[in-house]
Design a protein that fits this description.
The complex is a heterodimer of chains A (113) and B (115). Chain A is mostly beta strands. Chain A has strands at 5-7, 10-13, 19-24, 31-37, 44-50, 53-57, 64-68, 74-78, 87-94, 103-104, 108-112. Chain A is globular. The chains are: A mainly beta (113), B mainly beta (115).
Chain lengths: 113, 115
Amino acid sequence: ETGVTQSPTHLIKTRGQQVTLRCSSQSGHNTVSWYQQALGQGPQFIFQYYREEENGRGNFPPRFSGLQFPNYSSELNVNALELDDSALYLCASSLDQGRPEAFFGQGTRLTVV
Amino acid sequence: AQSVTQPDIHITVSEGASLELRCNYSYGATPYLFWYVQSPGQGLQLLLKYFSGDTLVQGIKGFEAEFKRSQSSFNLRKPSVHWSDAAEYFCAVGDLVTNAGKSTFGDGTTLTVKP
């Protein structure tokens, strides 16, 4: 059984650029959630995808968007990057959309300069 | 809105000493509660969870936590700390009412272990 994997592990982007982060969910899990963790803070919920549909969203602007594919892997896209977008982005997969127990990947460290 | 407070930003204990990390939550219904551990530059690992039933739950690595509804608390404990326990610890509450699968996290407690 494979765990949650994220790519890339580290990324440096320039303000105003766009970025795509990728996540492969744990085997058998159909729900993926994305979190942003700024330095010194706890993770903040961005959104969740269940069976290719957005299933809940946190307090993030529309320039944060996502996709989920038929194999339940997922992408997080951020447009018009700002310096404050620098953070660790965590992907978590759950067995089902009604199950809050989530298994996290190692994260992608995004630095915006 | 749900929230989680971890009152202690940083705790230092000696190796072999006991540990208690505090967590208080605010949630309108029966909460789903979690403790996660994060090593530097790593993702989150689930230590234990409470959904219902026995209010004392056992987790991995010798950790346990007790749910106290009257105090809105879910404190994490370990009887004897090992140097490898040094890490960041996060308490979280899961939301099944308004946004299934969303968890709200506290800002974490950093644990330092003295030799």
